[in-house]
């Protein structure tokens, strides 16, 4: 399945039905008078947010949507039937913008509805124009056309946890361990090329299900990191790093990931948990890894988890952190002027395991 989070469509409300010119002419009353009925109104186009969709793929293959037109009127003053509204389901988290790029509505709740294009008004038959001075009108009023609007859909996934990090950090393995997802795991970089969703079902530890999305690995080319904006609605962000890498490379990966995160959501207050994965390939103990990483990054040790996703070690501690109450820490005492963490240190909310 192709994941589409941005697309353009055209929606059209239904045209109104035509009114008719008609005169009653029964056998016993040949001069019965006008009886032309009105046309029906055109149907509206209604957007409805639903959790049953997680991609804009249907709109990628069908870019035009039109509501039903109203039915023409008939003799004997019969009004035409109104056109049926076209209900278009979109994923929860869809931002709808007009052709000029201005926001129209943010559909961020299941069942939220919005009429995006109105149907045309039905035409009038000649019976509508009967008056004391015009006993036999022979004209009608033309029906109105339905609205035509160009829309841009921009989807931001409504998730609980976003997994981010550089390539080959073990994000897919961690997602498969935490949830029932089947993310692709392979021995080459940038295996994940689109967001992959997984769900932790509700149980005695979680009152409701938790949705986790693994986002594609952060790439040196910034134009390939556009999927990072999906982390903006997440309740938690988990940054997964490879603990088996050289310490200098590990710290460099950390700063690069935070720099990219800043570009896509500079005002975020989402708590971030650090996962140093692949500890089974590291020569240091967990305490040493946690202490050294905290010293170089100013990240509180309570927000750092050293584990091996392949061996299911310390997963319980990470799950406990996801359901613990949020506690905002004190700001670090010393911050360098050009440190990429300056934007984040006052907003970070680590969670005690």
Question: Main traits of this protein?
Answer:
353 residues, alpha/beta, Spo0b-associated Gtp-binding Protein, Chain: A, Rossmann fold, six-stranded mixed β-sheet, five-stranded mixed β-sheet, 16 strands
How do you describe this structure in short?
The protein has 353 residues and is of the alpha/beta class. The protein has 6 helices and 16 strands.
Walk me through this protein's architecture.
- The chain is of the alpha/beta class and 353 residues long.
- The chain folds into two domains: 150 residues, Distorted Sandwich (Spo0b-associated Gtp-binding Protein, Chain: A); 185 residues, Rossmann fold (3-Layer(aba) Sandwich).
- Helices cover 16% and strands 22% of the residues.
- It contains six helices and 16 strands.
- The protein has a six-stranded mixed sheet, sandwiched between helices.
- The longest helix has 18 residues.
How does the SSE layout of this entry go?
Elements: E1 6-12, E2 23-24, E3 33-34, E4 45-50, H1 57-61, E5 64-66, E6 86-91, E7 94-98, E8 103-107, E9 113-117, E10 148-155, E11 161-164, H2 171-178, E12 196-200, E13 210-214, E14 236-242, H3 247-264, E15 272-277, H4 286-297, E16 304-306, H5 315-323, H6 342-345
Parallel strand pairs: 1-5, 4-6, 11-13, 11-14, 14-15, 15-16
Antiparallel strand pairs: 1-10, 2-3, 4-9, 7-8, 7-10, 12-13
**Sheet with most strands: strand arrangement:** 12-13-11-14-15-16
CATH superfamily membership of the largest domain? P-loop containing nucleotide triphosphate hydrolases
Proportion in β-strands: 15-25%
In angstroms, what is the radius of gyration?
30 Å
Straight-line distance between termini: 36 Å
| Low-pLDDT sequence parts | 325-353
**CATH architecture annotation name of the largest domain:** 3-Layer(aba) Sandwich
Count the domains.
2
The helix fraction, in percent, is 10-25%
């Amino acid at each position: 399945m192709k994941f589409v989070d941005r697309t353009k469509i055209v929606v059209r409300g239904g045209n109104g039905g035509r009114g008719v010119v008609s005169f009653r002419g029964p056998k016993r009353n040949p001069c019965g008078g006008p009886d032309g009925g009105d046309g029906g109104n055109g149907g509206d186009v209604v957007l409805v947010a639903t959790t049953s969709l997680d991609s804009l793929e249907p709109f990628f293959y069908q870019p035009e949507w039109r509501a039903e037109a109203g039915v023409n009127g008939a003799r004997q003053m019969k009004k035409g039937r109104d056109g049926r509204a076209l209900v278009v389901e979109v994923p929860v988290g869809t931002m709808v913008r007009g052709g000029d790029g201005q926001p129209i509505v943010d559909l961020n709740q299941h069942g939220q509805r919005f009429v995006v294009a109105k149907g045309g008004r039905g035409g009038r038959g000649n019976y509508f124009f009967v008056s004391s001075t015009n006993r036999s009108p022979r004209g009608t009023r033309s029906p109105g056309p339905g609205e035509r609007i160009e829309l841009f859909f921009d989807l931001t996934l409504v998730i609980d946890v976003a997994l981010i990090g550089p390539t080959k950090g073990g994000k897919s393995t961690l997602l498969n361990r935490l949830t029932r997802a089947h993310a692709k795991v392979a021995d080459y970089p940038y295996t994940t090329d689109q967001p992959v969703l997984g769900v932790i079902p509700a149980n005695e530890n979680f009152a409701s299900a938790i949705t986790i999305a693994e986002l594609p690995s952060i790439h040196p080319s910034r134009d390939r990191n556009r999927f990072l904006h999906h982390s903006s609605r997440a309740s938690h962000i988990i940054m997964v790093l490879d603990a088996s890498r050289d310490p200098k490379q590990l710290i460099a990966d950390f700063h690069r990931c935070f720099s990219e995160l800043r570009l896509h959501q500079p005002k975020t207050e989402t708590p971030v948990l650090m996962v140093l994965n692949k500890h089974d390939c590291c020569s240091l103990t967990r305490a040493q890894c946690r202490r050294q990483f905290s010293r170089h990054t100013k990240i509180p040790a309570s927000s750092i988890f050293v584990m091996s996703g392949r061996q299911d070690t310390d997963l319980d501690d990470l799950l406990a952190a996801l359901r613990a109450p949020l506690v905002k820490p004190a700001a670090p005492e010393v911050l360098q002027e050009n440190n990429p963490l300056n934007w984040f240190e006052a907003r970070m909310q680590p969670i005690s395991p």
